[in-house]
Amino acid sequence: MGFIDASDLLNVSSPGLAYIVLGGFVVAFSMVSLLVKEKLFINEVVLGTVVGIIMGPHVAGIFDPRSWGNSTQTVTLEVMRIVLATGLFAIGVELPGPYMAQHFKGLIVMVVPTMAIGWVIVAGLLRALFVDLNFVSCLAIAACLTPTDPIISAAIVDGDIFMLGTGGRFAVKHVPLNLRQILSAESAANDGLAYPFLSVSIYLTVESSRRVAIGEWFIVGWLYEVVLGVVLGAILGRTFAWLMRISLRKGFIDRQSYVAQYLAMAFFTIGIASTIGSDDLLAAFAAGNAISWDGHFNTQTEDEIFVSVIDLVLNCACFVYIGAWLPFDAFDSPELGITPWRLVVLFIAILALRRIPSVLLLYKWIPEIKTWREALFSGHFGPMGVGAVFISTLALTELPEPHNPPESQQELLAATLQPIVSFVVLGSIIIHGLSIPFFSFGRTLSRTLSMNTDASTLIVDPSNKIPYPGAGVYPEVVERGPMSETGPSNDRTVNFAVAE
């Protein structure tokens, strides 16, 4: 009887390793999720990305999405699409029914001029740092970095308006509800509106006639993609809500199946929208919001955690994927004009200039933002993540495969697009993902220093400089006069430790 070679039994494959990494992270994160999210204020966005980097091709070499050949772009695009669609659908559902109508003015100001100003500013920064790219190519890259990422936003600032948020306790305590709602709605709307910003850049790049490019942009980029996407999503959402009410009233559906429609409807909407070539992200958001207009769907699903579980799993898997997908070797490509110092300068400039100036300038026309401090927070809080990866991957489908070295401006754009975008995404995950832990640590340190300062302040007897027994801790020194049977007299407050 021969021995069986153990190697014959092993079936090591890329999908198997991917399942191990993704499933293992979700299991490990779930075991300590309460500690990590509510004590350390670190969410699955940061941890998932770190795990992806460690398991990816540049460290452990276990999980490498870019080794899948021609299918890599397709897989990346669809993974991001699914995560974005479910997140945007959830934002639409969880926002109060009349929210979009009641807050239309503030939302329009937050989305349109803020995006447009940031788009042009980022393009200008790119043109200054990467001189081989023309301004139109810079506009295309800037379009990927313009929208606020709804997934990172939901993971950080959403509290009681979102069951899926992991900002949770900290966000509820320190970020006003009106601010959390407008940031969530803005992140959902401007992710879908990134399509026109990208399409005008792509049309200007690939079309020889500028007039033809602008015409196609207006007809296709705005009317067919954006307007049709919103109308389609709203119609699907209202139709779905009407059918579900009838089905529930007649007893045709159980509660579990009702809740499952939450996920199924998101997939159904993006399937139809992407098939006809419309804006699937805006369609998903519009469908979710249309479903919640009368509040019936929210009432039926408010006690269910199924959606939160699915969303957590998708988010974990998505950011592990992004961590492994990041092209670290492309961050130093001098032949393309890409060097680490240029990327670092670009990222710092984007943090400072992409949103903060425009929000500070416009916040008086945004009723939901009350003070300049809230405007500063809203301007800072513009993370770039899943949406940027999705838009950049989508852009590559419209561009030619680049030669080495690139032979045209189109090929140069195709070669530099994702290295630049992915570096900014990595920086945003670190800075925005760790904003709350840093802020919490700063508050804790401030309280500790304050307590230590207070602890050195005592009530002393001016005759012998000895503290009175049981005097306690006060924010300033109190000098007391001679003790009497009824207690100290002639007290005087001073601002130094021992009265002279």
TrEMBL record:
One of its GO terms (molecular function) is sodium:proton antiporter activity. It holds the Pfam family Na_H_Exchanger. Residues 29-439 form the Cation/H+ exchanger transmembrane domain. InterPro entries: Cation/H_exchanger_TM (IPR006153), Na+/H+_antiporter_fungi (IPR004712), Na+/solute_symporter_sf (IPR038770). Keywords: Antiport, Ion transport, Membrane, Sodium, Sodium transport, Transmembrane, Transmembrane helix, Transport. It is a multi-pass membrane protein. It is found in: Membrane. Its main location: membrane. One of its GO terms (biological process) is sodium ion export across plasma membrane. The chain crosses the membrane at residues 16-36, 45-63, 75-95, 107-130, 217-237, 258-276, 305-328, 340-363, 375-397, 417-441. One of its GO terms (cellular component) is plasma membrane. Belongs to the fungal Na(+)/H(+) exchanger family. This is Cation/H+ exchanger. It comes from Armillaria novae-zelandiae.
